[in-house]
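Thread: "does anyone have the structure for this chain?"

Original post by V.I.:
We have the sequence but no experimental structure in hand. Need at least a predicted one for the grant figures.
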Amino acid sequence: MSLLMNHNDQRFIEIAQMVFQEQFKRDPQLESEMSERRKRLMYDDVVYNINFLMTSVYFSDVKIFEGYAKWIYELLCNIMKDLDRDRIMVQMTDHYRILDEILNSKGPGFLTEDEIKKATDYLEAAIQVTQKAVTDITLSTTFSEGDYYNVRKAFLDALLTNQTRKAHDVVEEARQEGIPLTDIYEKVLAKSMHEVGELWHRNIITVDKEHYATSVTQSVMSSFYDEIFESPRKTKVLLSCAVGSELHEMGIRMLSDLFEYKGWDTYYLGAALPEPSVLKSIGENKPDLVALSVTMAPYLAVCENIVKAIQENYPAVKIAVGGQAFVNTTELWKQWGVDFYSSNAGELAQWAEENI
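Reply from O.Q.:
Generated one for you, tokens below.
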């Protein structure tokens, strides 16, 4: 009997039903992820998966099923935007393993030993292709260019596949290999987090993944604090914060760490700090430089008000601004009369060393 199935072939309908039921049995999370419509489509996909597998086995051509596996994975990622790419990968690889188990349990009376072996090999190939596809995505030019791309890509891949320990190991190994801490911050961590933001904006990853990546990166940064705070002091003070209701604080936190590493005493105020609190902290801590960060354009006006208030109340204090919100402005910072603007923490640190 031919392996090329049709949708009415009772042998394969039985297999499809068994695979479908077993996957829900083993993975209770599917119930909350699959509406009734998605369940119907999922069952149809199981049938198609078996069809393509049997076609691949019939022609002894693994590339038929490999190509299909990558195509169906990307299709599901585009359809189920509420799920992360790695979660969909888990669904598909679990499916292939279950299908392999059930086909093997049927024994040679269903397929020949050679056909079963090919099916097992081709399903394993599909698993490998699907796992690789999680991080096989188009990245921005700014991420791909510059020093340490391999380190940066390995770190990003670890974030995208929820490998927290691996993310730490990648950065730790880079430091042990002699990559300067400032480069790790600017050319690995900062660029990776910017790319995570881009992937979220492109709807390739979910907001949950973006939050996870931020949390892991903050944890990686904290692992360097012993080294950072051992730096000789220079009796210079930086006060920094993300203004208004801004919650994107990663960039300004990195800036504060780099200044601390260079010997400054830093007062990092975090995010969502109102203007009176910023002014109060300036009065108490007497900084040489205040750095304000804005990521979202609607908070530019809040930043402008704080800048004016600082200039009025503490005219001797230097002010620097930065953040993604300024990128698409016509050099807005020049109208405010601030002392320095840069989207790069290293540039600001160098300017401060030379001018303060």
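V.I.: this helps a lot. The mean pLDDT is 91.
O.Q.: and DSSP finds 17 helices and five strands in the chain.
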